């Protein structure tokens, strides 16, 4: 896909809840990419550790890439934060929307490859995959997370037949047109299930998902927000999606 006005407007949507140590480092890594027309949109759920204030300071500093902040009143889950952020990015005229965690587990330096893959192939979305050749998970990622991730991929692919190696990946670059085609505003899931529902909607539209290898790092600061309710939702959502399928 080519964009008439030159470099595509790319918005990196970053949901945050208690990421005060990580967010400035992530924005620094995004700045190091020196990508033209790159923007960062932080979606903060009133983090008690003051992440939202730090994001505001970055926004006011007028730095490159420009940072904007969407404040929400309370913690409402990663999926809700992404839906709000992606909806804002679309209304602000983004051509490409990147989603990534704030905790430095996703390698920012893969973003140029993801954007290139979007523009040079038929892919509707490109995901940073741990499970294609060349991909990896850091050895210090806890064993129970590795096991959960392997199980979740097997489970999801058995039920929904997505044919995606890393069905729960949280690092992706979307054409804005794909987010409109799948009607991101109506996506209901959170956590792992959000990632799965987004992939499922893409496949149901007959659109292509490409995977590029990444090395997924364990976070050094802060904590994962993965909870029992997120895992329960993840177990139920594939069945719900399958049963809601029309045709
Ligand atoms: N605004 C907001 N942000 C949130 C919330 N919950 C989590 N986040 C933010 O979302 C990002 C990921 O959250 P984590 O809780 O650190 O995720 P994880 O356990 O490492 O899981 C990640 O990897 C999974 C695959 O292994 C993914 O399936 C999952 O979506 C996520 O990307 C972080 O930037 C975190 O601050 C929330 O309720 N609100």
UniProtKB/TrEMBL annotation:
<keyword id="KW-0808">Transferase</keyword>
<protein>
    <submittedName>
        <fullName>Polyprenol monophosphomannose synthase</fullName>
    </submittedName>
</protein>
<dbReference type="Pfam" id="PF00535">
    <property type="entry name" value="Glycos_transf_2"/>
</dbReference>
<dbReference type="InterPro" id="IPR039528">
    <property type="entry name" value="DPM1-like"/>
</dbReference>
<dbReference type="InterPro" id="IPR029044">
    <property type="entry name" value="Nucleotide-diphossugar_trans"/>
</dbReference>
<keyword id="KW-0328">Glycosyltransferase</keyword>
<dbReference type="InterPro" id="IPR001173">
    <property type="entry name" value="Glyco_trans_2-like"/>
</dbReference>
<feature type="domain" description="Glycosyltransferase 2-like">
    <location>
        <begin position="11"/>
        <end position="172"/>
    </location>
</feature>
<comment type="similarity">
    <text>Belongs to the glycosyltransferase 2 family.</text>
</comment>
